[in-house]
Amino acid sequence: MSVGTGQLLEFDHSYARELPGLSVPWTAAPVPAPALLALNEALAAELGLDAEALRAPAGVALLVGSGLPDGAQPVAQAYAGHQFGAYVPRLGDGRALLLGELVDRGGRRRDLHLKGSGRTPFARGGDGKAAVGPMLREYVTGEAMHALGIPTTRALAVVATGEQVVRESLLPGAVLARVAASHLRVGTFQYAAAASEPALVRDLADHAIARHFPDVAGAERPYLEFYRRVVDAQASLVARWMLVGFVHGVMNTDNTTISGETIDYGPCAFMDAFDPATVFSSIDHRGRYAYANQPGIAQWNLARLGETLVPLIDEDTDTAVEAATEVVTAFVERYEAYWASGMAAKLGLETPDTPLVQDLLALLHAQRVDFTRSFRALSAHLRGGDVRPLFAEPDAFDAWVARWEALLPPDRGAVAAAMDRVNPVYVPRNHLVEEAVAAATAGDTAPFHRLVDAVASPFDERPGLERYAEPAPAGCGPHVTYCGT
Ligand code: AMP
Ligand code: MG
Questions:
Q1: Do 133 and 18 contact (CB within 8 A), yes or no?
Q2: What are phi and psi of 203, to 5 degrees?
Q3: Is residue 277 classed exposed, middle or buried when 0-12, 13-18 and 19+ CB atoms within 10 A define those classes?
Q4: Could you tell which of 22, 95, 262, 264 is best to mutate to test the pocket of ligand 1, judged by most ligand atoms within 8 Å of the CB?
Q5: Where are the domains of the chain?
Q6: pTM for this one?
Q7: How far does residue 331's CA lie from ligand 2's centre (Å)?
Q8: Mind telling me the catalytic residues?
Q9: Fewest CB within 10 A of the end CB: N or C in the chain?
Q10: All residues at 6 or more sequence positions from 466 whose CB lies less than 8 Å from its CB, including other chains
Q11: Whose CA is nearest to atom 1 of ligand 1?
């Protein structure tokens, strides 16, 4: 079952083996001059991989998909997806490969996957490549999310290829090696459900259950229970995004995981000034994936998943649809519960108080206050700091603070400390990511590594890192847009 040579690692291939209809065996394009730009040593250790070996030529070769262990069977995965609401029946890994699965030190099965590894049969018009900038953006954003305690795929490494890729200009190319609980997406189920082989969606659901929710296998209605668990995982995930001001940017069904991990960081960003309408993607003209729309979009994507499961849930279609509808409708209350308890923690409250939170958010919006800084300012206020300068009209803030303080437990020092454990100082702000990525594209990765260090310990304020806690300088504009591929 397992393959390998006792070299750097051993892969398993349960996805390719159990679901042959959902992938195509494929190999990575040769890389002329691989050069390691970033290696995630902590993640390597988690996977039981030796960082020094990964830095050596054989390790770097592995990280771009050449020099794989004997018997490795990399595949391009098939999936469909709704992109900005429009159904595309065949998307798939156009420029990516699943190298195989590893069992990490904690016994968890993790995918090792490449992005930018060359054209595959799913490539359509694309060149199969990736540029250094967007791959480093995925690396730093994923590390920030992980450090914030938000489920996410993570970069293991970014390797420059030595090639130029053609975008609006010529850019240095790169391959990202990333690790995920799996790459099962809502779009994978859409693809399986549309296939001519009716057993495929059942096989896929069984695979997903075994991998992510093994305890539901024994439930009375396992597929319905599976659906409920995915809905719950996504409700929790999107609530966590909202609590840190994160905008994913491309919440297509192919970018919505079954595991509940954040995936495919493209034109995403953390907002500075609070504005529910914040959009970062330059191609999202209508604001479909704006900050405030994210919970509704997640629920819409989960409804698409539910449609694929209907035949598995019950022989009687009406019964199945009714049961699935009940589950997806409950997304709203699940999401709201996660969000309300998260907001209570951010404000140091023992019980959620939605009107209080809504009034704070309205104040932040009206006065265009920085979202991340405002919560740290509140804990600073409890310690006697003067945070009124953050607000253009501090009187309204004073009135809100009086209401808030009346609800707090008496030990203000303890409240402030608890708030600081959930409210980050450092998030990968857009202008910092752009700066780091631009420097790396020009050959200097030092700013990128400094930014990764800052966001990897987001809650501990450290001297010398002041600029990483600041919003974009005036003139930078709140809605910097870019395309993330
Ligand atoms: P993404 O926007 O990265 O989630 O990708 C959406 C779809 O476009 C997936 O099927 C990708 O594999 C494909 N794709 C994106 N960029 C490229 C590229 N440069 N070459 C080939 N396929 C691509
Ligand atoms: Mg994608």
A1: no
A2: -60, -40
A3: exposed
A4: 95
A5: 5-180, 186-340
A6: 0.96
A7: 23
A8: 254
A9: N
A10: none
A11: 264
